[in-house]
Amino acid sequence: MTTAERPATDRLQQQLRHALDRSPYYRRVAGSRRGRHDTAPVVLADLPLTTAEDVAAAGPLGFAAVEYPRIARYAESRDHAGRPLGAAATTGDLRRTTAAMAEALRAHAGPADLAFVAVPYELSGGAQDTDRALAAVGAGVVGVGALSPVCPPERTAELVAALRPSLLATTPDRALATHARLTAAGHVPRALGQRVHLYLGGPCSPVRAARVAELWGATAAWAYGSTLTPAAGLPCAAGTAHLTAALYHAEVIDPDGTDPVPDGGCGELVLTTLAAEATPLLRYRTGDLVRPARCGCGDPRPALQQHGRVEDRWRPPSGAPRTAVELEQAVLSVPGTGLYCATGWSAGRPTAVLDEATGGTRSEAARALRALTGIAWQVTAADRTAFLTATTRAGRRRLRPADLEAL
Ligand SMILES: [Zn+2]
What we know:
The chain folds into 3 domains: 10-89 and 228-310, ANL, N-terminal domain (Rossmann fold, 3-Layer(aba) Sandwich), CATH 3.40.50; 94-223, ANL, N-terminal domain (Rossmann fold, 3-Layer(aba) Sandwich); 313-405, GMP Synthetase, Chain A, domain 3. It has a 5-stranded parallel beta sheet with strand order 4-3-5-6-7, sandwiched between helices. It has a 4-stranded antiparallel beta sheet with strand order 10-11-12-13. By secondary structure, the chain is of the alpha/beta class. It has 12 helices and 16 strands. The site of zinc ion has 8 residues, from loops. It comes from Streptomyces lonarensis. This is Phenylacetate--CoA ligase family protein.
């Protein structure tokens, strides 16, 4: 898992050849490798890493390894700098994604369910893939999306109250915002019959995800992926995201370099597609931090504990950076804490902002952060409404203390 040097499988070799022969970007990579023996197996670890910058610079179809008429869908995501990352898919690609998702979702959804898909549909593949997979397991689907003025968050909340979906496919932050809207309108969200929250992104600490789902009386199931890497992690029956090993080969590397991290360490997830026709990716740096782990469910595929974006790490004056998720887990594990914890630097000091925590709870949170990082933290509080407003303003970016101070 942590190195690219495992014996190459036929499937991996086929994918490497397909990419190096057909994708305009990888043909250039192959061109720079000329002189090596053409019939010898390609060694994955010998290939350069592919970055989001590479994908953005190649343009919308710069990676597309199929002829134009075979493209069944074109979608985009954006990297942390806002650059569009294009991804085409063939009918076969879409079928494989839907089948993998449907197989995983069968443990969580079925014909008796009505599911709301509350993540963006515009240009993105994730909502459409989830929609198709839920339909494939027989669930009813309402595609409320997340960005369209046709269905703003107020309308989504009204529809949740009226239609009472049993499954909500969203992010923990959107689930919280919907909960707050319904509560303000006099509803009791726990009484609305939600059974499962399928979290599609918005990585947060396990303690926070459980708390958000519990507010609704639901259980949490995690998926992981992007428009470029759909269905890369899918939930087991216990709700933990496992690597979709049939579709991806994974490496975990030092986010500040290129070396593999030791087994069980947290690092940047690097994915190689195994069955992509339209957009094969070889050693793609996802920019996402994961810690591979064993899951109690017995599934031998590695569980992917999500730790947020590489750029969201907190860097101490010396020593190893900490992920925002690690810091959040330490703080929100303190009894008496609530649903939010923003961490970062403020006025030159490591700072955590909590929602509605008492003085004693803030002191305990400061102790927990010191135990984790070895330095002193200031811990302040803001009310939950301020967090809801700041989260909406921050969009996909992780919340920082400055976002709350600005309010
Ligand atoms: Zn599991």
